[in-house]
Amino acid sequence: MTIRFKSRLLAVAYRASLAVLFAAPLALSGCASSSGGVELAAAPGRGPMNTGTYPNLNVPPQVAAAPLNAGDKANLTGRIASAQSRQAASGRGAGTTGDPAWVKKLTENHGKDTLEAIEAQ
Predict the structure, then answer these.
(1) What is this structure's pTM?
(2) Contact by Cβ (8 Å): 87, 93
(3) Under DSSP, is residue 114 helix (H, G, I), strand (E, B) or coil?
(4) Structural contact between residues 105 and 112, judged by C-beta atoms closer than 8 angstroms
């Protein structure tokens, strides 16, 4: 096929897809029309109702949970500090950041070490 023929074929396919895209709603709307002469009434009381007044938008929203008081805040802050000091004392999390030489060594050896561990299995 030549390039010219391919481009024309694509143009025809594009136009056909557009025709189907615009014709489909028209065809489907014909199926939705009632032909028995029976008219469907809208359900009463549905939809927006005009009350003649504007809605009050200044109503404060309901709170999902009670806010923290000073005692709860101090308790949680103490628990977090305690957990941080326990973690620092155990050595977990230490040395993962702030040591560029260790990170560079890890990047150089990690691939080789992982490959050796896989091959050893």
Answers:
(1) 0.29
(2) yes
(3) helix
(4) no
Per-residue pLDDT in tens (0 to 9) along the chain, 121 residues: 566 666 676 676 677 676 666 666 666 666 555 555 555 555 666 778 888 888 888 998 888 888 889 999 999 999 999 998 888 887 766 555 667 788 788 888 888 888 888 998 8
Q: Are 94 and 88 in contact (CB under 8 A)?
A: yes
Cα 64–69–70 angle (5° rounding)?
155
Instruction: For the chain, state the CA radius of gyration.
Output: 35
CB-CB contact of 34 with 40 (8 Å) = yes
Cα gap 44→41, rounded to integer Å: 9
Nearest to 24 by CA among 12, 34, 32: 32
Tokens (6 digits) for 81: 């500090």
